[in-house]
Amino acid sequence: MTEPLTAPVPTAATDLTLWRGAARVLLQNWRGDSTVPSPGLYPHQWSWDSAFIAIGLRHLSVRRAQRELETLPLAQWGDGRIPHIVFNPAVPLAAYFPSPDFWRSSRAGAALGAPRHIETSGIVQPPVHALATWLVHRFDPALSRRRGFLERLRPRLAAWHDYLTGQRDLGGGGLTAVVHPWEAGMDNSPAWDGPLSRVEPVPAASYRRADLDHGASAERPTDLDYGRYVRLATDYRDAGYLDTAPLSFAVEDPCVNALLIASEHALADITAEPGGDRAPHERRAARLTDALVRRLWSPEEGMFLNRDLGPDRLVPARSAAGLVPLLVPGLPAHVADTLVRTAKGASFGLGTLPLVPSYDLRGPDFDPSRYWRGPAWFNINWLLERGLRLHGYTGEADGLRASMLREAGASGFAEYVDPCTAEARGTRSFGWTAALGLDLLAAPSLPAPRGGGDPAPAATRPGARERTAV
Fold it and tell me: Compositional bias of type Low complexity: which residue ranges (predicted)?
């Protein structure tokens, strides 16, 4: 990678080692126009992974970061959805399940405008994309304008948000809903146990789990959960990926909606950059924020909860998804303050544990090793760090930032870690762990502005200068 950097390479020995290690991961995982999360376990392009990766990749190559975000919309469906996987045709089908021949997107999704010549999954992932696009633009606005980066992405991002706030408002209350646990990103969180209990799993012999070729079974979802995931995906595919079809799983998730709100604020900035009207996006962000508090806030629990749209009730399971709305700029002050108290309490250990876990430490289903049932994830902690800084909790944000940097390097840029011991779990050399480590290394400890973006373009920060990549 030879493009000049616009952020200073660290000079401290420990920071330089971390920087080089993270850069090495991103170089190794780069596939020419996008970055795979992990060459073995996740050999294709994942939607929210690419958004997080672009945020860190901008510190190495702004052009590559832009390309990372530009490739996803090439697979966007006609109804506006950005699929959660874009398949690389060069990867053997057996390398990952569910593979392209399972999803059959170009045929099963044809009526909804699925691409004819690119195979994708039929479900989506959390909408981090507009936020990532704005951060990448802000890093080098001159290059972005020369390349027409925002001009090309803005209509696609707008269509993406229209889909989420339109067809996916399945509860009619103003929030977007997920129709599969994979769509929320936190695949096997205990928050899904109740809604999933209504789903009949497919027979275990009807598919082969490729994930167990690369990860310990004790750290992955159970066969029962996986059988239910496959059932949901099969039913959705066989219904032509229609959101109007009868759905056995539909949940309003606080993390997904918080990211949609943050990205809606970013889309307002993107729209205003060439002189457009930001007001419609600001109004939609305000409506979403009101709906988020009205439908998902639990004063008794001191955090946001998922809403199961089947029985139309809140799910009592306390996952870290309920803390992520701290990222929302317009969150009422008393709600933000309560979220921080909950995060610092015995259930999530902010400031006392190495990293915030993905699930309540005191919950009956907490597991420090099994995927999203307790381990700490770097992307969730990165979002919390930004939220803390946004709402004025600078000391807590600085402490979490330092801990994330320490554990990212010590774990070998692990996919996730034990929240109590920081022992590495999942795969190593994981894309967003490396990328977000780079972002934390490069970013100054300054409060984030109202929209959640960077305080200033990197080239205008004190001490910033052109560098070549290491």
Answer: 446-462
